[in-house]
UniProtKB/TrEMBL annotation:
<dbReference type="InterPro" id="IPR004360">
    <property type="entry name" value="Glyas_Fos-R_dOase_dom"/>
</dbReference>
<dbReference type="InterPro" id="IPR052393">
    <property type="entry name" value="Cadmium-induced_rsp"/>
</dbReference>
<protein>
    <submittedName>
        <fullName>ArsI/CadI family heavy metal resistance metalloenzyme</fullName>
    </submittedName>
</protein>
<feature type="domain" description="VOC">
    <location>
        <begin position="6"/>
        <end position="121"/>
    </location>
</feature>
<dbReference type="InterPro" id="IPR049789">
    <property type="entry name" value="ArsI/CadI-like"/>
</dbReference>
<dbReference type="InterPro" id="IPR029068">
    <property type="entry name" value="Glyas_Bleomycin-R_OHBP_Dase"/>
</dbReference>
<dbReference type="Pfam" id="PF00903">
    <property type="entry name" value="Glyoxalase"/>
</dbReference>
<dbReference type="InterPro" id="IPR037523">
    <property type="entry name" value="VOC_core"/>
</dbReference>
Length: 171
């Protein structure tokens, strides 16, 4: 059997981080792998999922987005190629800071409007995300485009091009 190259990702916005930390820690039988004042993440092997929760300053609650975490740059490139073939990429990012991590990403939207984040993480970060100039900024409600209209408003380049950060849409 070959090693998995992706991990399913779920990110949920919550109203009460502490109450949700207690609930999900009990549900998963484990404490979060990453814990910040506004964010927590469980990297589980059974089920194989990257499950994250965060507070949302705009009050939006529930599923923020779904995604696939690639284990390698090659795996992310393959996912990106499939998304581009589906004409679904709304934003491509390299070296972005989001969710206290440095990652390369493809953001897409399915036909129902569900946001999908496909990403390969290559390091930790000390802030939730950084602005395009590289300085830390307070987190907004999203990383990546919140909606297709956000991508349009921010003049997101065509899928074949790459931007350095989505903070213009988020900040």
């Amino acid at each position: 059997m070959t090693e998995p190259t992706t991990r399913f990702h779920v990110h949920i916005h919550v109203a009460d981080l502490d109450a949700n930390l207690r609930f999900y820690s009990q549900l998963f039988g484990a404490q979060p792998t990453v814990r910040k004042h506004d964010y927590a993440k469980w990297m589980l092997d059974d089920p194989r999922v990257n499950f994250a929760i965060s507070t949302d300053k705009d009050g939006a609650l529930g599923i923020a987005h779904l995604g696939l975490q690639a284990e390698s740059e090659q795996s992310l490139a393959a996912i990106g190629a499939r998304l581009q073939a589906a004409d679904a990429v709304s934003l491509a990012e390299t070296g972005t800071t989001c969710c206290y991590a440095r990652s390369d990403k493809f953001w897409a939207q399915d036909p129902q409007g569900v946001q999908w984040e496909s990403f390969h993480t290559h390091g930790d970060a000390t802030t939730y995300y950084a602005d395009p100039a590289g300085s830390a900024v307070e987190r907004d409600s999203c990383c990546g485009p919140a909606t297709a209209s956000c991508a349009t408003a921010c003049s997101v380049p065509p899928a074949a091009q790459v931007t350095s950060n989505a903070a213009a849409c988020c900040g």
